Amino acid sequence: MTSPTGFQMNKPVLAIEGLTVSFDGFKAVDDLNLYIDRNEVRVVIGPNGAGKTTVLDLICGKTRATGGSIQFKDRELTKMNEYDIVRAGVGRKFQTPSIYDNLSVFENLEMSFPAGRSVFGALFFKRTQAVLERVNQVAADIFLGDLLQQQAGLLSHGQKQWLEIGMLLMQDPELLMLDEPVAGMSVSERAQTADLLNRISQGRSVLVIEHDMEFVKSIAHKVTVLHQGKVLAEGSMESVQNNPKVIEVYLGH
Amino acid sequence: MNALNKMLGGRQGVVGLLILATLILVVFPLTLDAFRLNMVGKYLTYAFVAVGLVLCWGYGGILSLGQGVFFGLGGYCMAMFLKLEASDPESTKIQSTPGIPDFMDWNQITELPWLWVPFHSFTFTVMAVIVLPVLLALIIGVALFRRRVGDVYFSIVTQAIALILTVLIIGQQGLTGGINGITDLKTLLGWDIRSDSARLLLYFINAGLLFGCILFGKFILNSKLGRLLMAMRDKEERVRFSGYDVAAFKVFVYCVAACFSAIGGAMFALQVGFMSPSFVGIVPSIEMVIFAAVGGRMSLLGAVYGSLLVNYGKTYFSESFPELWLYLMGGLFIAVVMYFPNGLAGLWESHGRKWLSGVTRKPATVIASPAPGITPTPALADKKAASPLEIQP
After folding, report:
1. What pLDDT digit, counting tens, does each position of A193-252 carry?
2. Is the per-residue pLDDT at B282 higher than 60?
3. Residues of chain B contacting residue A153, judged by C-beta atoms under 8 Å apart
4. Is A218 left (phi over 0), alpha (psi -120 to 50) or beta?
5. Which residues cross the membrane (chain B) (predicted)?
6. Is residue A159 part of a domain?
7. Across all residues in chain A, what is the average pLDDT?
């Protein structure tokens, strides 16, 4: 874990400025500004169609911005390849669990180990002690330590969500982006996931999209409310919950 | 040794490989006459294509319906060399221009085209057999995969390329021999390839090369690259957002498949003694996919069996009921796709192995993957979890 110095503390790890994307004239994200600090857990909430997932798509390069900039550690992400963005230290979990059904839990995790990423690197990749240790450690973190040889497609829904989080942890990203990590989980699984997130957010920044307010309360340092591609409110969970505009468009009376 | 064992796929993999090797290297040469053995040799040249398709289609999810292009390119390169050797001034002295291939003379060509000149050299030819098809695959692959053209669109483009090359070959009659192809191939570096002894030797060289390709395929599949191919087939986005350049991996496996096909094509020209556009176009390309599908698109060895069986069936039925063959072939493909998506190898995995273990009364100790719906008991899972901890020194 790197201990941030005072100088770095003031500089956000991710700075999104004037970000705009339009799909055939419809502005899904409209002149958005968003700053995420080191070691911060930020939760983005908002009604359906607010542009939450689109923001993640823009950061990780899946969707190209129409305008604006995304600075990650002083690197401009809007011009970079998807795989270069990942290698720069941005990890992203998709809304539906995206895992490799036909591979084992072990192989799923190993696949995300940041080595042997070129064609010939992969061809001559060796399972070293370092790889084994990392896989075992991450598997234990995500509650799957006993299921390493299980075929991933046979895991329960919640376990699949954890596995995908584990695949991101293998990359040891500085910015971890999670799209609805507790969707479809049971109450006890949600509690476990909150615990997991609080543990893995040490030493990195986490950006989470979530609808479950109980879960949001248990993890968020700061909450951003998106509405029609713009920031409607930002601040602590409490201040956001009491914001009349937020109650109007999202939380309800 | 341990690493080698792992590469071959453990005990089961070695046994499977040995059975196939015995069949091809011992049983066929001992039981078949020279004519039939040469025929099997011809079938095995298609197996190169099918093995390539297992890698690129079965594991990589890239369905190429134009592998005949690479088979053809490899075959034409070899045929051009052999044709030049067969067209020495002595044996072509009745032509108006002696020393050039006969079909050129018939097309009023009086000088050897520049394209043919380098094929006087055997070294150049052997290199061209590999390099030209791989280069073409590289260009097609980079052009399409970089633009994220995939699935059925990719298949359609490969069909178009197969059609284009066929039309080109047929149209450029003076350069390529047109629809008849390049025929009357006689000697390789002065060695008569039409004699029985030569054909026997070529059969073994062909089989050796095929096993080389299978082993290389196994090496790829057992590396991390093999698992990546499956991962890409399942969840391409996840692989891309795990930091991999997905297109580069697709281009690689497509080039490997092209290389295998080209070797098959060159061996075809050597063993059969001619090459023609009828092995390049859409129909042969689709037939080659059927060989892989019937054998099992997830099995390198299955692809060889598929090529042998379908071609044997083709020869048998087209000798006895020529008009029925195409319907049978179509029906076979539909049946495989609908009922046995993993082909013969899949049937063997699900039924044959059980039957065999029943016969030998040995309990099946190795279970490749747990059956769907069955969760291993914790004890079993623990035991299995221990296996990746083995480290090869």
Report:
1. 999 999 998 889 999 999 888 899 889 999 999 999 899 999 998 898 888 888 888 766
2. yes
3. 372
4. alpha
5. 12-32, 44-66, 122-145, 152-171, 200-221, 242-268, 288-312, 324-341
6. yes
7. 89
Contacts B382 to A, Cβ<8 Å: 146
Contact B241 A103 (CB under 8 A): no
Q: What is the pTM of this model?
A: 0.88
**B378 → closest Cβ in A91, A146, A171:** A146
Q: Is B71 on the interface with A (CB under 8 A)?
A: no
In-domain check, residue A7: no
Q: Is A88 on the interface with B (CB under 8 A)?
A: no
Considering its fold, how many domains does chain A have in total? 1
- ipTM (interface predicted TM): 0.88
- A245/A58 Cα distance (integer angstroms): 26
CB contact under 8 A, A112 and B387: no
Q: Is residue A3 part of a domain?
A: no
| Alpha-carbon span A198 to A40, nearest angstrom | 11
Per-residue pLDDT, averaged over B134-138, amounts to 97
Point out the residue among B228, B249, B370 whose CB comes nearest to the CB of A111: B228
Weakest mean pLDDT among A205-214, B7-16, B93-102: B7-16
How close B235 comes to chain A (CA, Å)? Answer: 6
CB of A157 within 8 Å of any CB in chain B? no
For the CA atoms of B198, B201, B203, B206, the dihedral, rounded to the nearest 10 degrees, stands at: -120
Which structural domain, as residue segments, surrounds residue A18? Answer: 13-251
- Residue A210 CB contacts under 8 Å (≥ 6 apart), including other chains: A43, A45, A180, A181, A182, A216
CATH of the domain at A172: 3.40.50.300
Q: How does pLDDT run across B179-195, given as a tens digit for each residue?
A: 999 988 888 888 888 88
For residue A5, being part of any structural domain is answered with: no
pLDDT of residue B363: 45
- Neighbouring CB atoms inside 10 A of B70's CB total 33
CB contact under 8 A, A151 and B382: no
Q: Which pLDDT score is estimated for B193? A: 83
Chain A hits for B241, CB-CB cut-off 8 Å, are: 60, 62, 82, 86, 91-92, 94
Q: A209 phi and psi, to 5 degrees?
A: -105, 130
Which residues fall within 8 angstroms of residue A219, CB to CB, at 6 or more apart? A41, A43, A194, A197, A198, A201, A208
Query: HSE of B294 in the Cβ direction (CA atoms, 13 Å)?
Result: 24
Dihedral pair phi/psi, residue A124, rounded to 5°: -110, 20
User: Does B223 sit within 8 Å of A125, measured CB to CB?
Assistant: yes
